[in-house]
Write a structure and sequence with these properties.
The structure holds two protein chains of two kinds.
Chain A (H helix, E strand, L loop, with lengths): L1 H28 L5 H4 L7 H11 L5 H15 L12 H36 L4 H15 L2 H19 L19 H39 L2 H8 L4 H38 L5 H10 L3 H29 L7
Chain B lengths: L1 H10 L23 H11 L1 H23 L30 H37 L1 H16 L2 H9 L6 H27 L3 H8 L4 H37 L11 H8 L7 H29 L9
The chains are: A mainly alpha, B mainly alpha.
């Protein structure tokens, strides 16, 4: 199994390199990072512009720029210079990764739990009132723009806070700027409080799609011969449902979850913006605005790593769910 | 088909007027139906999908005919500002006095245009991409599919933001970018269909008869893969309208002075508490479009799925 994991990690290296090349080219064509400097009024001295170009490596041909970037990353763990000379991209990314990853992980977990429960209930009670309710809400959430719902939720939370007169829900930022209760427990409570609303928003998007998917795959399994056999053998219905049906019905959901992670990271950008989190999403949007190629590449590398990691976890989960699959 | 044959018989002057195929001389009294007719019949049975289609047609008409009829243009500044919905302004007005209804109509029009173009670009590109990949296999397949994998590892909205940051907010640029980024999804699906089709006997027969590659692709593979493509195209319209609004929200979509549903919501977000009508109506229309399109897609999937032909309903 360890050998399998190591092999998988090596296989994903070409994909990582490929996606950085793709993004590098696109970023280079997307605009000039020195435009604000060049457009400055009064004009910046020519030497300043040349110095900046040299610092960012823009005076070299594009393939040399890419190779230099790759070399610095691999040999020194350096993400290259940012447009803002006092920003260290690697340092920024590290801090923000923690903030964004806890949002992504917890909302994926919660969305999965709810998706499996509602999917199974929907399938077992097909065409019942419960099923129709779940189906309708699922379709509704699928049709709702993330940020519209996020703003709505935020505004409802603000109204609630005002009505109650206390800060029940936190609507801005990922943590409070200062805390009266400076203990570790105080910090945990503060961070958890700030996470509630963004987690609901991010979780709902995936929940809707996954619950529909879980319902379909559960229905398929419930109508299969081996489940009928298990029932005919006289096994308890609960055991048939959980041990025989659900275990198999979880395999397709695992695949879909792993495939959806890239889209989920996209939704994270939007959720973070609504709630003004200082996470990876904000970092990315700022770097796009500044045409900061190295910053964008750094962000991309992190998100590609997350996607690959989730796919790896999904592959390992197949082995747990499907006893026929063995990783030698 | 049957009607045509019957009428051509009567016009050529046959003495007895023949009725539709399946007259009393036939053993079974069954009307002949083409594949399209069967699909249409099955679609009509899906009530939710039909209702959605009617509603969607109404919304599209509203978006494109409405602005010609409505008394305000989206650029007009009326003397009443920050008015809640009333008879004069059904969707209220913003703080500058723009009529909310006119703005939503314009936004609707732009968003629908973007969404349709995304679906068109993505399916056209995806069909060619997946078709070549599945039909020729080998090196072309590996290269094209690895490229698709690459694009799909990166969040589409991030790529679109990076690419769109210089587009200047032209709606067709956004549609092209988002369409291009959705193409790998279609390509994967089409490739799967083509891979399974190309092994089947009727393709082999066509090849044995000396049909050229282009003939096999155009006359045999494309019509058979059409069901998958149509369903994908429908779902892409819904995904497209949501992607456009998201992109406008982060500031890399359609730019002012033009407008879209996403931009309208973005502009209204600071006024949710004070002028909520500016926020609710564009959102409502996005939900309506995405919901109806998804239901239509569901109906189409049921109607076009060849496995459903087991019974002639």
């Amino acid at each position: 199994m360890l050998a399998y994991v190591i092999r998988r990690i090596f296989v994903s290296i070409p994909i990582l390199i490929g996606s950085t090349i793709l993004v590098f080219i696109m970023v280079k064509f997307s605009g000039d990072p020195l435009e604000p400097l060049k457009m400055r009024n009064p004009p910046a001295p020519r030497q300043t512009i040349l110095n900046e170009e040299h610092r960012l490596g823009l005076d070299q041909p594009i393939h040399v720029q890419y190779l230099n970037w790759l070399k610095n990353l691999v040999l020194h763990g350096d993400f290259g210079p940012s447009v803002h000379s006092n920003t260290n991209i690697g340092h920024e990314l590290g801090g923000r990764l923690v903030v964004s990853l806890r949002l992504v992980l917890i909302s994926v977990l919660i969305a999965l739990i709810f998706a499996v429960i509602t999917g199974v209930v929907s399938a077992v009670k097909q065409y019942s009132a419960t099923d129709y309710t779940f189906t309708f809400t699922g379709f509704l959430f699928l049709a709702m723009p993330t940020f519209w719902f996020a703003i709505l939720l935020k505004s409802a939370a603000i109204s609630y806070n005002q009505a109650i007169g206390t800060q029940t829900f936190f609507t801005i930022g990922d943590k409070s700027p200062f805390l009266t209760d400076d203990s570790a427990w105080g910090h945990v409570k503060d961070i958890a409080g700030h996470m509630i609303l963004p987690t609901i928003v991010l979780g709902l998007v995936s929940y809707a799609a996954w619950s529909r998917f879980q319902r379909a795959s559960m229905l398929e399994v419930l109508n299969s011969d081996y489940v009928r056999l298990a029932r005919a053998k006289g096994l308890r219905p609960r055991r048939v449902l959980v041990r025989h049906a659900l275990r198999t019905a979880l395999i397709p959901l695992t695949t879909v979850t792993a495939l959806d992670i890239a889209a989920l990271l996209g939704s994270t950008i939007i959720t973070e913006r609504v709630f003004q989190w200082h996470g990876l999403g904000e970092f990315f949007l700022d770097s796009v605005g500044d045409h900061d190629a190295n910053a964008m590449l750094g962000w991309l590398l992190i998100s590609a790593l997350i996607v690959i990691l989730f796919n790896l976890v999904a592959d390992l989960l197949y082995g747990v769910l499907d006893p026929r699959i063995r990783y030698e | 088909m049957s009607e045509m044959r019957a009428s051509s018989v009567t016009t050529s002057g046959t003495p007895q007027p023949t009725s539709v195929t399946g007259g009393s001389d036939r053993e079974f009294n069954v009307k002949e139906r083409s594949q399209l007719q069967q699909a249409l019949r099955r679609f009509r049975r899906h009530r939710l999908a039909v209702a959605s289609l009617v509603l969607l047609i109404f919304i599209v008409l509203l978006a494109f005919v409405g602005p010609l009829v409505w008394k305000y243009q989206y650029t007009d500044i009326t003397p009443d500002n920050s008015q809640p919905p009333s008879l004069a302004h059904p969707f209220g007005t913003d703080s500058l006095g723009h009529d909310g209804f006119a703005q939503v109509l314009r936004g609707l029009q732009q968003s629908i245009k973007v969404a349709l173009c995304i679906a068109l670009v993505a399916t056209t590109l995806g069909v060619v991409w997946g078709g070549i990949s599945g039909y020729y296999r080998g090196l072309a397949d590996s290269v094209l599919m690895r490229l698709a994998d690459l694009i799909l590892t990166i969040p589409a909205i991030a790529l679109a933001a990076a690419l769109g940051s210089t587009s200047g907010g032209a709606w067709w640029m956004i549609a092209l970018i988002l369409g291009g980024l959705s193409a790998p999804l279609v390509a994967r699906a089409v490739r799967g269909v083509v891979l399974s089709l190309r092994e089947q006997e009727f393709i082999e027969a066509a090849r044995a008869l000396g049909a050229s590659d282009s003939r096999i692709i155009l006359r045999h593979l494309v019509p058979n893969a059409l069901a998958v493509v149509i369903v994908y195209a429908t779902l892409l319209v819904a995904a497209g309208i949501l992607a456009e609004t998201a992109l406008s929200y982060v500031g890399f979509g359609v730019q002012a002075p033009d407008t879209s549903l996403g931009l309208l919501i973005t502009a209204a977000q600071s006024a949710v508490q004070t002028r909520p009508w500016l926020f609710y109506f564009p959102g409502l229309f996005i939900i309506l479009i995405a919901l109806t399109v998804n239901f239509i897609g569901d109906g189409l999937r049921d109607a076009l799925d060849p496995r459903q032909t087991r019974q002639r309903r």
